[in-house]
Design brief:
Length: about 220
Amino acid sequence: MKKATTTIPVVFFVGIDPVQRGLVASFNRPAGNATGVYALGVEAIPKPLELMREILPQPGLIAFLVGPQVQVRPPQVLEAEAAAQAVGQPILVLYGRNEDEVDKAFATMAERQASGLLFGASTYFQVIADKPVALAARYRIPAIYEWREFVGAGGLMSYNVSRGEAGRLAGDYAGRILKGAAPGDLPVIQSTRPELVINLETPKALGLTIPHTVLPRADEVIE
């Protein structure tokens, strides 16, 4: 985007720090041709870990699956390891950079007897959404996904910011820019409203009971 144009207005919705990655000069004054919404990124990782420990009778080993990344050890891995260490939770980091690796990762989880699975943020997992959901069902591994769409496809639960809310905020900015506002004058909005979605059919297949302390906190329950 940055290489393509410095003049055409751009409204983004990203899960990476836009200042740190050079998309904008600052949150309050983007200063260029781009602005938009910054959703929870690595900051969201501790909450799914907490939820997983809450829904599992005995947490045991929890796997963390990471998609294709540029870095050798992306920030979300470091954050997941730090969050797990803080609560004394054993964690197994695995990579699913292609479909073969995803298959091998689930086989490793079964071999290591992982009791739960957390998905790292990755567009790739959204592209192959049916595959990880099917593998989690086959191996009977409770999993918490990044977005609601995984839960609609049969996944157990998802936790992240509301894409509907983020889309509304981005749409508002697009409208303001079309009316003459300069992107560089519109502060980057940090969307922090979380959305917990639970599929009630999936726990039955896993022989799992969602605690009464978790269910009332769901923003949406799929029956």
